[in-house]
Amino acid sequence: MNPILFSIGPFQVHWYGILIAAATVISYWLTQRNVRAYGIDPNKADRLFIKVIIAIFVGARLAYILSEWRFYMANPLEIIRVDHGGLGSHGAILAALVCGYFWTKKDGFCYWQLADATTPALPVGHIFVRLGNFINGELYGPPTTLPWGVDFPSTAGPVHPSQLYELLTSLIILPLALKWSAKPRYPGYAFVRVLLAHSLVRFFMDFLRQSDQPFEGLVLTQYMALALVACCAGLIWYWETHKHGEGKIPGSNGE
């Protein structure tokens, strides 16, 4: 499939960009729906959403540059060539977590409640991004003789369409994200569980990725995924056995 949807002179519109835009719009709508259900001022949440979206794209770009640092050290001008693609999902997640924490504090929001409101955006974004990766013919898996193997322009034969594997897992996670974020048991309940599931999937799926350079048997994104799994599992254990078990709600008073 041609990754370029259409061209007008030198201007090209890529499927990847259209899909990113679609993911942003859908994520915004789902977040606003949860924000209203939680009784949060949607106008104040709007301003925060715009800032977080910018942070997500900056963080995603920086993460990709870090993961491909050898290439960018040799080609520094490519760092600013965002039109050539290159986004890292872990950088997007970390940027949203860190920047969101300080911005919610500043605006008086409950951090974990806002995180729950944005929970469906994680699988939605992953679905559209991986579809874009598939159309671009990137991030595929190793050679395979299985009937669903795909022969991309840059491969010498059929390979595992690992992009579609991740897309399918996100389609499974999405209903859970919608259910948990609609009525979370306590602030943070939905977000941390979905992030845990996403990180576990990413850790195992990265064994099929062909473009990353391993270090001590694992690639950088797998170490990041393991760190997120540990943090999410720790938070769930703590909340369930301490704060929630004692009747305290984590995330209240802006925590």
List the helices and strands and how they pair.
Elements: E1 4-8, E2 11-14, H1 15-37, H2 42-67, H3 69-74, H4 89-107, H5 111-118, H6 121-136, H7 162-182, H8 189-205, H9 220-243
Antiparallel strand pairs: 1-2
Helix pairs in contact: 1-2, 1-5, 1-6, 2-4, 5-8, 6-7, 7-8, 8-9
Q: Uncertain regions: pLDDT < 50 for 5+ in a row?
A: 245-249, 251-255
Percent helix = 55-70%
* Count of DSSP H/I helices: 9
If you compute it from the alpha carbons, what radius of gyration comes out, rounded to the nearest whole angstrom?
19 Å
Largest sheet: 2 strands, antiparallel
In total, the number of strands is 2
What is the 3D shape? globular
Structural class: mainly alpha
How are the strands ordered across the major sheet? Answer: 1-2
State the domain count: 1
Mean pLDDT: 85
Order of helices and strands: EEHHHHHHHHH
Q: End-to-end span in angstroms?
A: 47 Å
Strand content: under 5%
